[in-house]
Design goal:
A ten-stranded mixed β-sheet has the order 2-1-3-12-11-4-5-10-8-9, sandwiched between helices. A two-stranded antiparallel ribbon has the order 6-7. The protein is built from eleven helices and twelve strands. It is 40% helix and 18% strand. The model has no long low-confidence stretch (mean pLDDT 94). It is α/β, with parallel strands linked by helices. It has two domains: 1-97 and 243-337, 3-Layer(aba) Sandwich (Isopropylmalate Dehydrogenase); 109-116 and 124-227 and 237-241, Rossmann fold (3-Layer(aba) Sandwich), CATH 3.40.50. A hairpin with a 6-residue loop joins strand 6 (132-133) and strand 7 (140-141). Its EC number is 1.1.1.41. It holds the Pfam family Iso_dh. Residues 5-332 form the Isopropylmalate dehydrogenase-like domain. Keywords: Oxidoreductase.
Length: 337
């Protein structure tokens, strides 16, 4: 079996603990992965690098096209751009995919949710264009730019994914009633593309109404596709419906590269204590397995995690237990057989 190279970014804070947990699980599955570890962000600066995205890290990602990533802290102060944003732009990881799936045994408001948020990942308000503050500090501005091609590829990605996964409906979340240029273009393109997918139901909802409906009747949603800023907010809202960011994985997909990550922060308050919940990055590893055509391994991994949480067997403090990250991982590995 030929080895599949994977660039591993353990990150900082709780990142190394939870990524090491995911690697242990992957190794038990005999996935054939071969790991190349690189450092970025604050960890890179602490190691003496002059950039938050060292050339060695970029070269590894270009070579492997596959990344498993823990939470990364962007250094404070001017001149340091978000590492996540920089990676998405550099490798054109235009589609951010955030599955939200209820997990038995968690303290969540809803028990049977299965929603996927698809977010345009490179343009809009997070593109970093036109940001400036006046010399007197009394005026700040930023530029939001989206293009027809960006809209087309993210909306088509959402419909194609829905079709491939047997989903029933795609909802376009927008603010075209106010943001008539940018959101208006997104909605116009969405309506055009939806006509090509007569096997999939399509609806539209203004983003603030979408947030309200997700809280009141989330079961009415299936796949949501939206622009960068709205997608960031709605995907976190969806995670909150099932128990929080610690249970939610994320994927960033481009034409030649894909990055799979824990979507929560580095949690410096519990860093080094060995009690972090590794579920988010383990489930991100399951998304990576699907991406490289190992669906059975992905399903085995998800079943193992769900069993541990449902049976409350060696779960971490955030899930109401007192186990360490290592003991939680042991429980997952035992269920893999």
């Amino acid at each position: 079996m030929s080895k599949t190279p994977v660039t591993v970014i353990k990150g900082d804070g709780i990142g190394p603990d939870i990524v090491n947990a995911a690697l242990r699980v992957l190794d038990r599955l005999d996935t054939g992965f071969e790991y190349e570890e690189v450092i970025v962000g604050q960890a890179a600066l602490d190691a003496g690098e002059s950039e938050v995205m060292p050339e060695s890290a970029l070269k590894s990602i270009e070579r492997t096209g596959l990344v498993l990533k823990g939470p990364v802290t962007t250094p404070s102060g001017k001149g340091y751009r978000s590492v996540n944003v920089a990676m998405r732009k550099h490798f054109d990881l235009y589609a951010n995919v955030r599955p939200t799936l209820s997990m038995p045994g968690t303290q969540s408001r809803y028990k049977n949710l299965d929603i996927i948020t698809v977010r345009e990942n490179t343009g809009g308000m997070y593109s970093g264009q036109g940001q400036k503050v006046s010399e007197d500090g009394n005026r700040a501005e930023a530029l939001s730019v989206i293009t027809r091609s960006e809209c087309e590829r993210i909306i088509r990605f959402a419909f194609d994914m829905a079709r491939a996964r047997g989903r029933r409906k795609v909802t376009l979340a927008h603010k075209a009633n106010i943001m008539k240029s940018t959101s208006g273009l997104f909605l116009e393109v969405g309506r055009q593309i939806s006509e090509e997918y007569d096997d999939i139901e399509h609806d539209e909802v203004i983003v603030d109404a979408c947030a309200m409906k997700l809280v009141m009747h989330p079961e009415r949603f299936d796949v949501i596709v939206t622009t960068n800023l709205f997608g960031d907010i709605l995907s976190d809202l969806c995670a909150g419906l099932i128990g929080g960011l610690g249970l939610a994985p994320g994927a960033n997909i481009g034409e030649t590269c894909a990055m799979f990550e824990a979507v929560h922060g580095s949690a410096p308050d519990i860093a080094g204590k060995g009690i972090a919940n590794p579920t988010s990055v383990i489930l991100a590893a399951a998304l990576m397995l699907e991406h490289v055509d190992q669906p059975e391994n992905a399903n085995r991994l998800r079943r193992a995690v769900r069993s541990v949480v449902a049976e409350h067997d060696r779960v971490t403090p955030d899930l109401g237990g007192n186990a360490t990250t290592e003991r939680f991982t042991d429980a997952v590995i035992e269920r893999l057989g």
